[in-house]
Specification:
It is a single chain. The protein is mostly helical. The protein contains six helices and no strands. The radius of gyration is 18 Å and the shape is elongated.
């Protein structure tokens, strides 16, 4: 386990890179969905949006989410790196689980477009686009400020 403490800064850097990549996708995919609601099903634009959405999830978001979790858990496991106590870490982990749940919702909504069963409006996707922002703000405050 000493290698975790020795490599902590590298693990932290990789965690941050993964989180930034994941967040970029969480911000962009609902916006794509909002634009996607404007196009006719089966059109060339519909197929283009489906391709863009699928690639964003498969190539960027899914690997970034997995990497963020792996490097985050490695940071927790590194001996001597978490000091000061408090419940900030538990709050952060619950919120990251919420972000993961939101990620899974986005994947389900993407399948709705593929199956022609999208049940949401452009306004809905523009509104839910704020969810990752709110989660990110509280997560960053928990990780940096550690108020509780």
């Amino acid at each position: 386990m000493n290698w975790l403490a020795d490599g902590y800064l590298w693990i932290k850097a990789l965690h941050l890179i993964a989180v930034i990549s994941w967040m970029a996708g969480l911000f962009y995919l609902p916006r794509l969905f909002a634009y996607h609601t404007r196009v006719a099903r089966g059109s060339e634009q519909d197929r283009l949006f489906q391709t863009m959405e699928a690639k964003l999830l498969r190539i960027i978001m899914n690997p970034a989410m997995i990497a963020a979790w792996i490097f985050g858990l490695l940071m927790i496991a590194a001996p001597g790196t978490l000091s000061g106590g408090g419940i900030w870490l538990y709050v952060k982990l619950v919120l990251v689980a919420g972000m993961t749940w939101f990620h899974m919702l986005l994947a389900r909504w993407r399948r709705g477009f593929v199956e022609g069963a999208n049940g949401h409006t452009e306004k809905f996707y523009r509104t839910v686009n704020e969810v990752p922002t709110i989660l990110m703000i509280v997560i960053v405050i928990m990780a940096i400020v550690k108020p509780i």
